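Suppose you are handed only these lines of text.
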Amino acid sequence: MAYPLAEAGAPIGVFDSGVGGLTVLRALCAALPGEDFVYLGDTARLPYGTKSSATVVRYAVQAADELIERGVKCLVIACNTAAAAALSALRERYAPLPVIGVIEPGAVAAAAASRSARIAVLATEGTVRGGAYQQAIARLRPEARVTALACPLFVALAEEGWTEGAVAQAAAERYLVPLFAGSDAPDTLVLGCTHFPVLREVIAASVPEGTRIVDSAATTASALKLLLAGPARSGPGALQFLATDSPERFARIGSRFLGRAIGADDVTGVDL
Ligand code: DGL
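From them, the structure of the protein bound to D-glutamic acid can be written out as follows.
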């Protein structure tokens, strides 16, 4: 079925498996301060990164359906794992409604940042398995050598709020030091999971100085801005949050990802 396009004043739907996508929402709000956003975190079923592709597609469709029912004018899949598995399924399902993922924008950021064309993608198991980053970077820089590394523990650390200190540092070193051991080390790391930007400092402390670290947030915001081309709406826009598990926990943990306070009253529990 084809979905009618919502009017220009409708909100923008954004979703992730949990609070990670709030790192993207933060950039979207900064780039488009006049827009209204409704964000859904599927916290009850996190992590997506260790699930099969078929399961992630099913979850992503349910999350997106919930946002579509709320009349959003476009969708941002602020989850690399869901974008890798379900971008084309969601585009097909909701056409002509625009659907943006975070992988292409992340690849754009990496391709622009790397001088040596040696790029490492840090992501979930699901994103690594699908090869979506490797393919997206190859389209932009065919000469690039891309290593993709699954760092599932980073998701748990980020959700737990353990973004600094000995445990986070030890996990970062365990994952990253071997990446730089050979002569063919990357000069650019892509944070290919929207949970990872909150671990940027421990990641930076575990890799050689000068390594460029990029994520999808700013380039996704640029892609969305381009898509919504037209007169900028005057702000401030409204933010609405939906979570499939404890609104209180979402608000508490999510504030760090969004970079501003979220009240538990601002979060509505939903059952998908
Ligand atoms: N934030 C999600 C991503 O960008 C993954 C976290 C999870 O495993 O659910 O891939």
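What can we learn from it? Residues 16-18, 20, 46-49, 79-81, 124, 127, 155, 193-195 surround D-glutamic acid (CB under 6 Å). The chain has eleven helices and ten strands.
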